Amino acid sequence: EYGKQWYQRRVRGNVLKESARIARGKISDLATLSDAEYDAVIIPGGFGAAKNLSSFATEGPSMSVDPTVSEKVKAFHAAGKPIGMCCIAPVIAAKLIPGVEVTVGSDVEGTEKWPYAGTAGAINA
Fold this sequence. Notes:
- This protein has 125 residues and is mostly helical.
- Helix content is 42%, strand content 5%.
- It has helices at residues 6-12, 15-23, 47-51, 56-59, 67-78, 90-96, 117-124; strands at 41-43, 83-85.
- The radius of gyration is 16 Å and the shape is globular.
């Protein structure tokens, strides 16, 4: 299924089906997540966080966040529960939680260790 139809699958695909394929197990719609039932929320990074959970990949600092993601992150924050975000996902917290401090790497452009310094700058914007 991945072969030549990769692009078509991405355009017409379903994020839940793709998540289940990657996780190789049962998944649930984010809308069913309740801060009363869980001790923390973890949001993995990668292009999904930058493109599907937010519009950071295409809009940078003026990004928007998926309404369900926004609701859930704010609920966990209001409940004082831990929120873990990996890789690029901290841009979501930076957008939703006023005054939050996040770590995404260096803000020095062009180093071998962190070639994407623009991300750090976008978070500060």
